[in-house]
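User: Here's a chain of 107 residues. Predict its fold as tokens.
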Amino acid sequence: MLPKYESGDIIVVYRDQQHPVSSFYGEEAAVRLKTGERYLKTIQRGKTPTMVNLLSFNAKPINGVKLEWIGEICVTLPRGQIERLRTKAAARARKAAKAHAGLPPKK
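Assistant: Prediction complete.
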């Protein structure tokens, strides 16, 4: 789903499908097809109520497929943000370890 998602981004989705397929028309979601393939795609109404078309920025549409599951995207964490969070968490852990060892905090 480039260019929207970059390598290293984390996309968090609901495990259980919360809404009917029709409520996802025009939205991006994680999907699993009846054949087992998984994608992050924009959902589009298909020719029948049980069929959808899947769209993306960088690939041909996948038309007329049946979905086994839709995972609504609830959080997207860009790779850069994840790296900053890890850096902050590591600094807090070092500070806590020093405090636990009785060392004065570094200023």
